[in-house]
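Weekend entry, working from home. Most of the wet-lab plans are on hold until the incubator is repaired, so I used the time to fold the two sequences that have been sitting in the queue since the last round of cloning. Logging both here for the record. First:
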Amino acid sequence: MKLQFLAAALAVSALALMTTGCRKPETPSVASGQQNTKSASAEYVFALIAKNQGDPVFESARVGAEDAANAIGDKLDVKIKVLWRTPNEQDAQKQVEYIDQLVLQGVNGISVSCSDAAVLTPAINRAVKNGVAVMCFDSDAPKSGRFCYFGTDDKACGHTIMRELAAVLGPGKHVVAIPGGDQNSLNIQNRIRGALDEATNYPNITIAGVYYSKEVPQDAAAALEQVQTANPNIDGWAMVGSWALFTDALLKWEPGRVKIVAMDALPAELPYVQKGVVQKLFAQQTYQWGWQSVNLLAEKVIEGQDPPTIEYSPLIPVTTTNVDEFAKNWKQWLHQ
């Protein structure tokens, strides 16, 4: 495999990166489970690969990773450098290219949010075979050789969103829609499965459908408005993905006319709660995606530990009662 990667490196003129870039002193294989011998001058390079630059949920993950690199590096008396390699738009093949390039550069570890688990799995496995520790955050590739996943329990999340929406809607007949995002995103598909499964507990709720769009704010908002206009009987949205709320496009909606329970609680979403357009948000711990990526990679690569295979982070409910207090967190998470 090394020879294959070196051949690929020559083909793309990447050999210079190996001699002048990130290659570190030889350390025991990640797969060996041994603790690396480190010194004050030791340097480790970890890379994060998110789904796309246009999704603001990943901004705080990047800050979390950089904060963790400083704090954990000081704690372990080593230098940790974080590389950010993320496509401008969602593109699983581009993520594959980043993984292969990072292996050539000699990084010590990679954490990736998979746009398409089936496409990413072979690249993850190649990296692992070449001694690079790989984990997933936010969106998993469970059949790959990644050593762990950190993020949301997506199926349980789908159950939560639908259950909370049913409570907000109350008695009577209701028609509910679900925004679906990218059909290849395993995490979103698991949330949809959870939401649909939960809906079977409420015979008064009819599911109008799952409506797919790009996981980009403007596209998602336009798609949602189009669906709502074409189906005015929809009186509830179970937003397992809340990309449409990352813009102010829906703030013009009449508060309470259509009930909305949604994922995430980014700064752009909070005015929807404050105005009453959205009844409840469930915040993913996006800052922790980055922090824990570096922390778990450090445990694996530097300290020779074996973290749990799956580590779920709980959702944080945000309503009118705590929205103002919750908003203060973003000053830390985005270094504002």
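Second, folded right after the first finished:
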Amino acid sequence: MRPEERDTRGSGAGPSSDGGRDAQIAPPSPGHDPYQVRAKNLLKMRALWAIPVIVGSILMVLVTVIYIGSVVNPVGHLRGLPVSIVNDDVGATIGARHVDFGARLQSGLTGSRAVSTLLSLTPERLQAAKNRMDHNGAYAAVVIPPDFTASLLSLTGLRLPAGTSAGKPTVQLLANQRAGTVGVELASGVLTPAIAVASHRIGQQLLARAAPPAGSATDAVLADPITFTSVDYRPLPSHSALGLSAFYVALLTLIFGFLAATIINVTVDAATGYATSEIGPKWRQLAPLPINRWQTLLTKWAMALPITGLLTGLMLIVAIGLLGMDAPNAGYLWLFTWLCAASVAAGTLVLFAILGTQGQLLALLLFVYLGLASAGGTVPVQALPGALKLVSQVEPLRQILSGVRSILYFNSAGNAGLTRGIITAAVGLIFWLALGTTVVRWYDRKGLQRLSPDLIDYVQRSITAYRAQAQPQPQRVEKGAQAGGVNRTRGESS
């Protein structure tokens, strides 16, 4: 059957699919409006209000709790933000006594409940800390320099051993902006007051040793001797949206997967006659095809694969080629985003197939709303509420973001998040394919068709009868109406 043979237009009243009604509908009386239902009649129906009010209210409450709850108090929810601490201080020997203020500072930070509760401080050497930050493993590193103790003791006027150099007492924070700018700010916000407290405590010890005149310049310097500075470690590229380009690419990847599934679902259902299509004033309903749920889902999955590849490719062409976004490994980025978008599209189509139109709301809530709140794209995962931290372990957006961040900022290192992203996207795709196959084929085996074969046959026969009725009947030619070689039919003027 050709598609045009199944086309029923909105310009005429088509047959009802209700088997209890006659396929031939009598035309309205002349002068009467055939569309007699008014808005006021619909607005009096309680059932009409129930779904928008109840479902809309529940959805908005959930979205507000998820969104606002994820960002309203990041410091209060902060637990275990990874930060390295490097103590290169060699100390100083004064007489028979060895002094090491660097070790005291390190133990003070790691032993402070105010710091250790919020940050996960890992003592390690400088090269190990840099390697960790190169693989997206830490937001920052606190570096205590080799001459830290010597520089503090020099402030008291104490003569240092020969060959000992002393500069200004400084503790440096190496900020890993590539891991996330908000995470760096949170780490700095915790460490700055903690270093200030340690500086005052060390200052009291220095004041007791030097005993300078009260109010003197030396007294002021020794009261707060440590300077805490922040330096960017491997600064971000200039066209990286201040470190947010990875988040936006990941978000667009997820959205394209969702949108592709939504468009494909509507298109296939309209083409097979299980949904209407309306473009402007044009309304169309095709006669339903005799196709089961499983074959319909296979068609949608097959379409989703090339379409998601096309959409993600166009996204990167525009972002990189037109807008100049920094992307050192564009080929890897396209393949990864294609895989992730295909996984999201497959899952969305499965929810459509299992739940019907309600599947779109559930997909929107699971993939988009919940994903945005738990991805760690703006607020780090360590600063999310407990429930969202748990959700982030399986939410696709966080896994997409990990892989995209690795490709854009960490030279596509597998242990910087790319391996995790590939595995979770592949597992997610397999999960949705398995779930869709199991449930949809079970629907078909149980006879839970979208339309029964008898009803499809009835619709086809009704359309045929309706068109036969609507088609103009050939009129008879009157005898003797031929004159001068001109044929005139009844009703025509001479």
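Plan for Monday: verify the second prediction. The longest strand covers residues 81-87.
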